[in-house]
Amino acid sequence: MPGTFEPLPGGGAAVALDDVEISIIRSLAVQLLELIGPGPGEDTPDDPLAELFADGPSEPPADPVLRRLFPDAYSDPEGTPGPQEAEEQRAYSAEFRRYTENDLRAGKRENALAVIRSLDELSTAAGDGGAVLKLTPEESRQWLSALNDLRLAIGSRLDIVDEDDTDLLYRLPDEDPRKPMVMAYLWLGGLQETLVSTLMP
Questions:
Q1: What is the dihedral of CA 34, 147, 116, 50, to 10 degrees?
Q2: CA–centroid distance for 12 within its chain
Q3: Residue 71 φ then ψ, to 5°
Q4: Alpha carbons 4 and 11: distance in angstroms, whole number
């Protein structure tokens, strides 16, 4: 089971993680949480209705990683739209973002927190050398979403756009400063792939 998720009887998944792997995933999840930022209601804890009625942003994020995590809902996959069509797409995307981005951010925050909590519990229960992480079906889905977000974030930092870019990463020399990030990207991809297989009927 080292390095790969395996299905548990009755649902869920398990993976053996050593101390270094636990530390890496937790650190990445914390960084993702910091990148996503607090929810709109977290700045005004005395007003429980603030988050419920808060409008989200209407403009795409400036950070390219956040743009990858929260892309525009309307765009032309076939190429460059004309000026009028581009303006319509921007307006539709802005309206869609205004009503959905807060919920999307909240979901991504909760998934990242689920990863952190489960790793903290694992670290507390484990001795030196790591332990076996066991996830319920719901936790498995949260982990899968968080792993996907982590790979999107790292892929954005590495300028990975398609599969051809991934192939180039395998040929990076060891002295390339991107190498540790590439190794994390590929490793998380392996975890994600095996976790997907445990959730398939």
A1: 50
A2: 19
A3: -75, 165
A4: 16
Token pair belonging to 24: 């890496």
pLDDT in tens, the chain (201 residues): 457 999 999 899 999 999 999 999 999 999 999 999 886 555 545 555 555 556 777 677 888 998 899 888 776 556 666 777 777 777 877 887 888 888 999 999 999 999 999 999 987 666 666 789 999 999 999 999 999 999 999 999 998 877 777 777 778 888 989 889 999 999 999 999 999 999 887
Indicate the helix (H) or strand (E) that contains 166. helix 163-169
Euclidean distance between CA atoms 33 and 54, whole angstroms: 20
The phi-psi region of residue 5 (left if phi > 0; otherwise alpha if psi is between -120 and 50; otherwise beta) is: beta
Sign for the CA dihedral angle at 131, 136, 138, 140 comes to positive
- pTM for the model: 0.83
The angle formed by the CA atoms of residues 64, 142 and 133, to the nearest 5 degrees, is 115
DSSP string, 78-139: TSPPPHHHHHHHHHHHHHHHHHHHHHHHHHHHHHHHHHHHHHHHHHHH--TT-EEEEE-HHH
